[in-house]
Write a structure and sequence with these properties.
This protein has 183 residues and is α+β, with helices and mostly antiparallel strands. It has four helices and six strands.
Length: 183
């Protein structure tokens, strides 16, 4: 009799514990889904600290940063789909700094791009006609002699780009534009 009573108590405790754990798992799942789901879009201008990687990647150096003029940062989906753009004013840049290195990677003038970089600029052009990015240069401007482009990364799925990170510089007014997107 006592043994049956102990089993009943233990059984009810385990059922209760299972319900509690299932509830916690559901709450945790919802929290994770919210973080990686549709989330929120931020059009708040990023700080100089937030964007320092942009100038360091293209070897111009974060110490040139004067001001972040505009930013657009979408939420990132579970698979990493996102859109992030910035417009940054820097203290100085000379066209003789914007060159390729001995391996052929580095800066290219916008009107001379070809191959993979040409495909990447086409990918950028698909995102630009947006109200949220009215401050970002149009594709035809990015393809002009006024702009230089530094490819940080370009990923393909089949024969088309599906993710790019590009840095653009317009030396005449010391502006840097960063573009990162994945579909």
């Amino acid at each position: 009799m006592a043994m049956t009573r102990i089993r009943l108590i233990v059984n009810r405790f385990l059922i209760g514990w299972g319900i509690f754990c299932a509830g916690c798992a559901i709450v945790l799942g919802i929290a994770i889904a919210y973080q990686f789901g549709p989330g929120k879009v931020s059009t708040k201008t990023a700080s100089n600290h937030d964007i320092r990687y942009v100038l360091n990647w293209c070897e111009l150096g974060e110490e040139r940063t004067e001001e972040v003029l505009n930013s657009y940062i979408s939420a990132s989906s579970f698979s990493g789909d996102h859109l992030e753009t910035h417009a940054i004013r820097i203290s100085h840049v000379a066209t003789n700094e914007l060159k390729k290195n001995e391996t052929g990677s580095g800066w290219s003038r916008g009107d001379t791009v070809s191959g993979v970089l040409d495909d990447a600029l086409g990918f950028v052009g698909q995102w630009i006609p947006s109200e949220d990015l009215s401050w970002f240069p149009a594709e035809q401007d990015l393809r002009s002699s006024e702009f230089y482009v530094f490819p940080w990364s370009i990923y393909y799925h089949g024969t088309r780009p599906t993710a790019v990170k590009l840095i653009f510089v317009r030396p005449k007014d010391n502006l840097v534009f960063y573009f990162s997107a994945k579909t």
